[in-house]
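Problem 3 from the worked examples.
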Amino acid sequence: MLTFICYPKCTTCQKAKALLDSYHAQYETRDIKTDNPSYDELKTWLALSELPVKKFFNTSGQLYKSMGLKDKLPSMSEDECLRLLATDGMLVKRPLLVDEYGAMVGFNPAAWEKEMLELERLQELKEMADKSPYKVRAVETIGGKVAVQKGEIPLFNSAEFVLGYANHIKRVLGCRKIAVDKIMFEEKFFDLSSGLIEETAQKLIGSGFNFAIFGDFSYYEGKPFNDFICESNKSGHLYFTIDDIEALKKLGDC
C-alpha cells in the first residue's frame, strides 16, 4: 500500500494528491506535521530513495531557515541529519510517496506520473500472474538466485517497463538475474529497426542486471537479428535461450 505523506495546507501537496487521485491510486494519507516521520522510518526511506540525506530537508521552510541549517548541514553526518529530521516533520521535504519498495521525495509531476504508469503496468502483471498457472519463482543456482517468469500474453511494451519490472523483481525477490518468457514481449521488440531490444539491453546492463529471454527464435531468419543474438549471448548480460532450463544454466554460470 502506498503512503502519501503531506502537509494538507501545502499547495504542492494538494497538486500531488490531485495527480494520485486522477490515476485512482490507492493510498493512505499521513499528515507530516501531526505524525512526524521517525528516525527508523526516515532511515528506511533514505535507503529506498537512493538519494543523499540532504535531499530530505525542506530547504524552503521557515524552520530550516530559522535554524541556519544551510550552513550547518555540510558538517553533519548522515545519522545526525536523520535524527534532526525526526524531531519535526516541518523539516522534512514534502510530499513523500512511499511503500515497501521505494520512496519519492518532493513533487516532480513527470516523475510521479511515470511512477503511476509503472504501478498500473505492474498491477496488470500481478493480476495476470495471479490468474496464470505460471508465476514468478526464484531458483537457487550455483551462481546465485535467479527469478524465472513464464507468461501467456505480451505485457512488455517499452524498454522502460522492462527495467521497471526488473527493479520490481529485485525489490521483491532480491534477484538481479532474471529469465523471462519471450511471450511477455510485444513482437516489435524483435524488430531491430525499432531499436527496442538494444535500448532494453542498455538499460538492463546499465542497472546491473543479467537477463535472459527464453523461447523459440528460430523463425527469425534475418542475419542482423541472428548476429545480435550471437553477440548478446557472448556478452554475459543478455541471453536468448530456447527454454527456461537453458536460461537458468546461462544465468547461473555468469
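Problem 4, a separate protein:
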Amino acid sequence: MAQVSITNATLAYNAATAVPTATACTSATDGAAIDYTGKEDGRILLILNNKAASGSINAKILKGNGLQGTADLTIAITAATPKAIVVESGKFVNVSGTNKGKLIVNGSTDLTVIAIELP
C-alpha cells in the first residue's frame, strides 16, 4: 500500500473552526505523511487516535534524515484516548529524498491522524 497524505487544517486567530476528520494510516509500514514544508516549529499540532474499540497501539513518528534525526519517537495510544503532540522539525522532518519536507507517522490501520496548523 502507499503512504497516505494528511492535509493540514489551518486555524485563524479568533475564529472557531470545525475539527477536521481524522485520516487512517493505510498500513503499519507505509503510514502517513504530513507536510512541514516551510513551517515553523510549534506551528503544527498532531492529534493521534486509536480508533479500535479496545486495547492499545503504538504510533511511531519516524526520525528525519537530517543531522538531528537520531531516533524514532514511539507513542502508546489506548482506545478512545487521543494524544496530542507538537514535534521538533529538526528531529523528525526529512530534508532530502522522496519524503523531503514531510514528517512520517507509522502505526496500525487503527491509527488516525489529524494535523492542525496553528496561526
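Solution to problem 4. The mean pLDDT is 92. Helices lie at 89-92.
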